[in-house]
Structure formats: C-alpha cells, structure tokens
Specification:
The protein has about 290 residues and is an alpha/beta fold. It has helices spanning about 55-65, 80-90, 105-115, 135-145, 160-165, 165-170, 190-200, 215, 225-235, 260-265, 265-270, 275-290; strands at about 25-30, 70, 95-100, 120-125, 150-155, 175, 205-210, 240.
C-alpha cells in the first residue's frame, strides 16, 4: 500500500491557456510518478508523491498545446529510473530524460540511458532533496557522462547560485539551471543572485529554465510577483532560455497552480513571438537533441 502523499495532487482540471503555443513547443521540466502498481516507490525516496504517470502528463500536454517534454528523474522515485525509461519508450521521440546518478555508475549503464533518450544528469543542492552534494563526486559523474554529450542540470535555491558560481562556471559541459535558481524574491532582478546567474549565462555554456514562478511567488496565483525576475532574465539572453511547467508541482508549500495560468504567464515573460519561439522550440531542440 502506497503511503499517504506529502502534499496535494496537481490541479486535475487546468484551464485551456489563452496563449497558443508554437508548433513543437517543449516543456523542459516535468516529472512523472507511478503508476505505483507497476513502479512502487522505493524506501530510500526523500518524499512521497501523488501518482502522476506518463498518461496524465501526456493528457496535460495535449490540453496545453505542448508537443515535447524533458522528464526529470525525481527523488520521489530515487534511483529507480524504470518509470522514466518506460515513458521514453512509450513517448516514441516525444520525450527526453534527465537522470540521477551516483559515482559508481558504469559506462554501460550510462550508454543504455543515452540510447533510451536520457541526455542529462541532475544535481540537487536543496536540503529536503539531500542537501549539497559532494563536489568531488559531482565532478566524477560529470566526467563519466561527458563522452555522451549530456548536459548538467543544477537545482539550487536562495543564495546557492552565488556560493556555487565558481563551481558551476568551471563545468565544461552545457549547464542548465533549474527554476530561475530559485532566488529570494525580495532581492528582485538587480540582486546578487540574479547578477551571478546572468554572469554564468554570459559564459555561453549555461542555460536557464524560466520555470517555478509558483515556487518564487509570495503573492500566490497567478504568481505575477515573480515576473520582474523572470522578465529580466528572459530579456537578458533569449537564446539561453527554456521553459518548464514543473508538473506535478511536488513539495510545493503554497497554492497548487493552474497550469493554464503558468502557460499564459509567458505572454508577459516573453511578449514577443520570436522570444517564445526560441524559448519553447529552438533552444530545447538544439540543447536536448530532439529529432
């Protein structure tokens, strides 16, 4: 029997967005969980999610007008990548994946992941997801995936982007920073966290997911208080921006977002159709090697 989830499920009836997304639009950050009768949750997970299988993700994306997605392995399933691998097979080119790895992973394991459609490895620096990883272990893993051309996904919050700027800047592989680096909202777009993030973007090796407005927001839906930071970043380097829904919004302490609202925020984050084309189609196409 699956334990009680740690938070609410995603909105089951998100509204249809007003914004029509361009053909080939990509959700660059989402997760799946279950079905639990097929993929039971491992005991070493860091939280207990609600069921959110690939079939529900596909239904959501069809509703929102999203053609492609990057499914990020979550601590909810730990190192059990079977749900992700099954989704990559069932999606038949619709999805790419991001894995969680340990230093003892083998070249053959990475090669199998690569062949399945996984193209990145993620490292979490957040306390509730395991805390700051060992940087030496990170370097070992990054070296192992380098021959496969994978990107390195970094999940930080607060002032971590400032603290880790030197380390992130030293990574030779393409780097993708999740959720706008989750800076303190009160710092605004001119604070030290956003300054550090922009310096990293300016290296030409760092991309940014303009996701997680609901996690930054203090005011709540429709999360417009996160717009100053998001729009500042979008204007700074549209050729380095990505967008993700972060569905099904696990470990969220505020109100559960309507995914239609999150899509429509794009009209203010990136008002121009050319900027949205880059963020939603061209940039993910190049970075994640969609066919």
């Amino acid at each position: 029997m699956t334990p009680k989830p740690d938070g609410p499920p995603p909105n089951p009836n998100p509204r249809k967005p007003t914004l029509a997304l361009p053909p080939g639009a990509c959700d660059a950050h989402c997760h799946i969980y279950g079905p639990f009768d097929r993929f039971p949750l491992p005991p070493e997970r860091s939280f207990t999610p609600n069921a959110a299988p690939e079939t529900a993700l596909r239904q959501l994306h069809d509703h929102l007008g999203i053609a492609r997605a990057v499914i990020v392995q979550s601590q909810g399933h730990g190192l059990d990548h079977r749900p992700l691998l099954a989704a990559l097979t069932e999606g038949a080119g619709r999805y790419r994946g991001v894995a969680l790895l340990k230093p003892d992973c083998t070249e053959s394991e990475i090669a199998a992941f690569d062949a399945a459609g996984i193209c990145g490895v993620r490292f979490n620096f957040l306390t509730h997801l395991g805390g700051q990883p060992d940087l030496a272990a990170m370097r070992e893993i990054i070296a192992k995936v380098a021959p496969f051309g994978w990107h390195v996904a970094i999940h930080v919050a607060g002032h971590d982007i400032v603290t880790q700027e030197g380390f992130i800047g030293s990574i030779a592989a393409p780097v993708v920073v999740d959720h706008m680096a989750r800076p303190p909202l009160a710092e605004g777009p001119d604070g030290p966290s956003i300054a550090a993030l922009k310096r990293l973007i300016d290296t030409g090796r760092v991309w940014l997911k303009l996701s997680g407005a609901d996690r930054l927001s203090v005011a709540g839906p429709p999360f417009r208080d996160a717009l100053p930071i998001a729009t500042s970043l979008a204007r700074h380097a549209p050729e380095r921006m990505l967008w993700g829904s972060d569905w099904p919004h696990v470990n969220l302490h505020g109100p559960m977002p309507d995914d239609g609202d999150l899509v429509d925020l794009l009209t203010e984050i990136a008002p121009g159709s050319r900027e949205r084309q880059l963020m939603l189609v061209d940039n993910p196409q190049a970075l994640f090697n969609f066919d």
